[in-house]
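Hi U.,

Before I forget, here's the chain from the pilot set. I'm dumping it here mostly so it's searchable later in email.
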Amino acid sequence: MRLHAFIRHTRELSQKLSHALLPVTCAHCSVPLWGDPIPFFCQPCWNTIHTLSGPKCPRCNLPFASPFALQHNPQHYCHSCRTRPPAFSQAWTPYPYQSPLKEAIGLLKYYGKISLADPLTRLMINTLKAIPPIDLIMPVPLHATRLRTREYNQALLLAHRLSAHIDIPLNYRTLIRTRETTPQTGLSRHDRLKNLRRCFAVTSPQAITEKNILLIDDVFTTGTTVNECAKTLRKAGSGNVYVVTLARIL
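Structure:
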């Protein structure tokens, strides 16, 4: 116990010394950081991250506008899931894509701040209680060209930590992206579908045959990306595909 306290004290002292020599400010409110446990964010700002509340679509987890949407029928799906049923069985997204979570995801995804992967994964873990039994965890893949540019896949960083936490095997080689696509940001739903059509593939169908898969990504926008991944996995013979993403653009 004393050793644990000593290590924690040494780590905190080292962090404070580092911040004194190389000042760091909170990425959200810009106050100087000294001993805050979340990299690049002060604890008060991080504490403002709250989960989405109220009734949600049982299939895609889209929040409903009315607080009474599921009062009479708990299995009432949103319009999109009723008219265009997704290939995934169910999706969970715990948080809205808002500040300061928005800045944290951006720092991880585009600026190499991989130390944020741990606290962001801890946020995702809150959603895992409701997930059915699964056999494999998979990240949404990046194309090799983009992976070489970014040097890491942020979805894989999250998936790796989730895999260790719930002791489920991680598979990041079987589902691949076969061609580089235009970034989805700003595209209409029609253009997103066209952009992602036939851009995923399964390299070893035997590795996923009848396996229930948990697919991991950082942000859920329209669900086009995770749905195309799920469609590819199901066509290759997988069992149910479930989805967990960290934040949702509303």
